[in-house]
Amino acid sequence: MEDVQKQTKARSKTKASKMSEKTKDMISGYLYVAPFFIVFGIIGLYPAAFSIVLAFQEWNGLGEMEFVGLSNFTVVLQDPLFWKSLYNTIIIGLMGTAPQLIVGIVLAYFLNLAVIRFTNFFRVTIFMPYITSMVAVALVFGVFFSSNETALANYVIGLFGADPVSWKTSEWGAKIAIALMVFWRWVGYNTIIYLAGLQSISKDLYEAATIDGANKVEQFIYITIPLLKPFILLTVFMSTVGALQLFAEPTVFLGSSAFSRDEAMTVVMYLYRDAFNLGSFGTASATAVLLLIIIIGAAAINTWLTSGLGSKKKRGV
Amino acid sequence: MKQKRKNQSKAGTLPIYLILIFTSLFSLFPFYWMFVMATQPSAAYNSIPPTLLPGGKLVENFQKVLDTIPFFQAMWNTILLCTVVTAAVLVISSLAGFAFAKFTFPGKNFLFILILLTMVIPPQLGLIPQYYLISQLGWLDTLMGAGVLFLLNPLGIFLMRQYISESVPDELIEAAKLDGCSNFRIYWSIVLPIIKPAFATLGIIVFTLVWGEFLWQFTVLRDPSSYTLQVALASLNNAFRVDFGMLLSGVFWATVPLIVIFLIFNKWFISSITEGSVK
């Protein structure tokens, strides 16, 4: 029996191995993506689904759950603090992320120029803020922007003739300080991503374009931007998602008053406060679901706006 | 003609250098200032003009930190957490990235889109059930509980797929198959050496992500002995009257090792990137 099998195998060796090659690839494919999807199922999908269920229940984490329909959503949507936190998140997000995308592309473009030297040094220093933690940044900026009149930030703006600001308790002071720390920490990260993108563009393209008589600006518009687009899309997407999830910076920046003041309360802080300070898992889950919808909407809009870049030309993002 | 263009571009570089130098100073100043404050008594903070040179309280301030939080325990917890999670994510992502880049299997596109979608799902969506799950497992106040969440890293797969499909030629894989290499052998001896630069990039991203993440660690780790650095540092800021010298001393000493790791890792990172671009 075995012999027969062996013979058959040997005879149709070329054909069989080709067929089994495909099957092998298929099995390998599934096998190699399996670890991710197992992890995804347990700590990604299941909690997400549980959250959506929880959004329609009243629950404090200990007793019985009670189905309450949409009332968690009505409670959250009628809470002025929710809307304030959403407003804060959007304002801080825009001020913190939009400028760094533009600055990041410009810096990456400079660092990729053949004539610029010491690029290693600049790359390392510009990227360095990213390796600090959000907590560290928030603490350092928290001292820099302390509410004291003698805060270094007040000294700096005093040089330009401005009056001291109470950074942690004023509507715009807190937002500006937090947006600045977001900008400071992430601009180098985006620069490195763009730089990787620029380096993936073949030099031959630029040479060919130069031979065809295209100048530097034309090369930037017709070669660099279109080929960089996947990287720009990625960063816009990540910035949008990240900005809407802001939590550590304001929480640590404001310290003990983080959950009792509203100047810089973000949506995630609102959610956290509901769940872990007030013990209301139901409304917190409703907020989480609302946040998901907001994030998907914002990410879709921003990605759509950005994908117009280069192809339909002219669009400031 | 060639000479002329060269001169032109050289003269044009001065503003570029100025911008780059300004950006570098902007990036480095908070590090420097943090060091200055870590060496000054808290009162130095109130002086006008501001104190911008180091003082002599480096040791004293750090001693206060050690009296307030379990600093070295937190440091060890953080390093352990980051190392294990990073290694695991690199393996998971490169395997899946390889599969998505080079194999065809039914449902591949669907699964990949699913991964991209998980990037939109905010980690906060699952926060409460995750907290509940971890508490039911008895993993609250443990590194296990703090780490398990970070194994889910869709960005890693995205980066790996991108890198592998661009830098690992199909011909090379075909040739290896003709030589009788198994798929895992191809992954191990062909793909892995080529994607070292991507490993460096993703490694740095994951390591710093876990090192710096706050919300989850803050939620799960409540007991001081289980604190990671971030949670421990944040707790320094909760006192009624914060000693700025002590506070920034804690931040400084928590940041120094990371800078050292980064500078060492970074050399390798940059050299392998240049290697990759020469090929």
Q: Could you characterize what this model shows?
A:
Chain A: The chain crosses the membrane at residues 29-56, 90-115, 127-145, 176-196, 281-305. Chain A: It is a multi-pass membrane protein. Chain A: Its main location: membrane. Chain A: Belongs to the binding-protein-dependent transport system permease family. The complex is a heterodimer of chains A (317) and B (279). By secondary structure, chain A is mainly α. Chain A has two domains: 2-54; 71-307, MetI-like (MetI-like fold). Chain A contains 13 helices and two strands. In chain A, α6 (134-144) packs across α8 (171-199) and α10 (216-244) runs antiparallel to α13. The longest helix of chain A is centred in the N-terminal third of the chain and has 42 residues, at 13-54. The model of chain A is unreliable at 7-16 and 312-317 (pLDDT under 50). Chain B has two domains: 2-59, no CATH class; 69-236, MetI-like (MetI-like fold), CATH 1.10.3720.10. Chain B contains 14 helices and no strands. Chain B has 279 residues and is mainly α. In chain B, α2 packs antiparallel against α14, α3 packs across α14 and α5 crosses α8 (154-167).
For CATH, the homologous superfamily of the largest domain in chain A is named as MetI-like
Low-confidence stretches of chain B: 1-5, 270-279
CATH topology of the largest domain in chain B: MetI-like fold
End-to-end distance of chain B: 30 Å
Total strands of chain B? 0
Whole-number tally of structural domains of chain B: 2
- % residues in beta strands of chain A: under 5%
C-alpha Rg of chain A, in Å? Answer: 26 Å
How many domains of chain A? The number is: 2
Would you give the CATH topology of the largest domain in chain A?
MetI-like fold
CATH architecture of the largest domain in chain A: Orthogonal Bundle
Give the CA-based shape of chain B.
globular
* H/E element sequence of chain B: HHHHHHHHHHHHHH
What average pLDDT do the residues of chain B reach? 85
